[in-house]
Amino acid sequence: MFTGFNSELVNSQIAPTQASSIYWQHLGAELVYTQDRCGKYLSFWWEGGKELGLNQEQVVGSALEEIFTPIDIQAYYQKILRVIQRRIPEQCYCLFQYQEQFFPFELVISPILPAQGESMSVLVMGHLLKDLEISLLNNGGNLPLYSYHKLLKQISRKIRCSLDLDTIWQETVNSLGSALSVSRCLILSYGSNKKDLKVEAEYLQTGYRSMLGLSLNWKAELYLRQALKSRHPVAVDLLDNDPYQQKSVLVVSTAYNNQENALICLQQCDRYRYWTVAEMELLQDLAEQVGTAIAHAQLYQELEQASFKAEEANRLKSDFLANTSHELRTPLNGIIGFLKLLLEGMADDPEEQQEFIQEAYKSSIHLLNLINDILDIAKIEAGKMELELTEVELDELFQDVDNLIRTQAEQKHLSLQLKLPATLTPVTLCGNYQRLLQVMLNLVGNAIKFTHEGGIVISAEISKKKTYIQEREFPGLVKISVADTGIGVSLEKQDKLFENFFQVDGSRTKSYGGTGLGLAISQKLIEAMGGTISFYSMGEGLGSTVTFTVPLSHLPVIKTVQ
């Protein structure tokens, strides 16, 4: 009865004899051999080798690539080094070639630990996977399996039948994951921001956690970086504890016109898996098909969005022309009407004559403002709006707004409050005075127009946080707010307020007049000066607040509260 084996035999550098093979047989494995850290066979026994005419003396002393050869020599060699360095056994699957035949083995690679010194060799025991025995086309094992070739055609046909991105993603992972019997198959999108990979679709066997919707930092994982860089499948075994139980991973990038657009990731979670050359070739061929399909679907989406935006722009411009023609005719008719009354001598006295002239003048100013709005938006969109930025005193800006607009508020019996920050030195902004005044008058004018009772509060707040705008450093910002107690805006319509020609509701606001360009112009002017603008309302009838920022030229001295 076998009670052990000679350790000298394991470490022997000489060819094993027929007698020594008896010791290997008693281990109970079909395949047993030892190798040094360079992959050289030190001893070898395989029960099925006799039927193939495999001479054991021929194998011992040979290198990995000479007689009994792993198909993926580099991956196998890395496993040997990893086992020796970590002194921990590993289980894996490996496809070997002998002459023109191929043999899939399940292997356990164990370090041989000497009494003294570092481990320099491994003991490998294997079991032939007869149910997975494969027959490659006769070209040195480099061509994919016929069944894989057929599978590639099936998956490609499915994804080519759709221009819907979600369908392409899901069809890919379902077909590939099911065919290769992996635990999990993912598609991760590689967006234009080039920062994160998002799991867009997932094939998942029962018993494992879903990764759908996760965002992964590709820079943090070496194998993901390699896949994006190399364009070839990257196989890796994860030995550390993984929250998603990944053990063996095979990943490849998809691309179109040399631009990466996704990653396909196969994961085996129940065991360590050897990825065959045929599986890698299948994945790489499929990645080319998927990359093209994704690019076409994305282009189709962009065309749909562009078409929708064009239709929406045409609708808005049509509405604008309809509204603006009315807006322009109203003051023009006023001017013509009052001038006609004067020419026909309809004024009874000098006082009434002066009144007609003032009304004609007011209508002409209103008409000029409407035309200026149209010209401003045209200039901005054509990129011809140039702003000269200088130092602007906040005090002066607020005072001019008060002088120009208070009468309008009083005529509607509305309160108008201006609240400046408490400072010992002037608050100096960096901006264009005329355009800041235009924005302020625009926002306050809107607040008065859409407010029937209550009032308007104009306030400013200083932020001392340094900010960088157009590669220039500023010591802080001023946030200016215009709050009113007016008609408000429903939540679902607030995101459209800054669109050109948009009016909250034509039938509701038509009586208020205006082109619908005020907020759009204000936004573009503020952004051109390095600031931002936002609108907030709790809903209809609950008032509104418009806030914008302007960079500070320098920090003022703030009053301390006693």
From TrEMBL:
Keywords: Kinase, Phosphoprotein, Transferase, Two-component regulatory system. SUPFAM superfamilies: ATPase domain of HSP90 chaperone/DNA topoisomerase II/histidine kinase (SSF55874), GAF domain-like (SSF55781), Homodimeric domain of signal transducing histidine kinase (SSF47384), PYP-like sensor domain (PAS domain) (SSF55785). Its EC number is 2.7.13.3. The keyword Transferase applies. It comes from the Bacteria. GO terms for molecular function: histidine phosphotransfer kinase activity; phosphorelay sensor kinase activity. It is an enzyme of class 2 (transferase). Residues 323-554 form the Histidine kinase domain. GO terms for cellular component: plasma membrane. It catalyses: ATP + protein L-histidine = ADP + protein N-phospho-L-histidine. In the N-terminal section; belongs to the phytochrome family. PANTHER family: OSMOSENSING HISTIDINE PROTEIN KINASE SLN1 (PTHR43047:SF72), TWO-COMPONENT HISTIDINE PROTEIN KINASE (PTHR43047). This is Circadian input-output histidine kinase CikA.
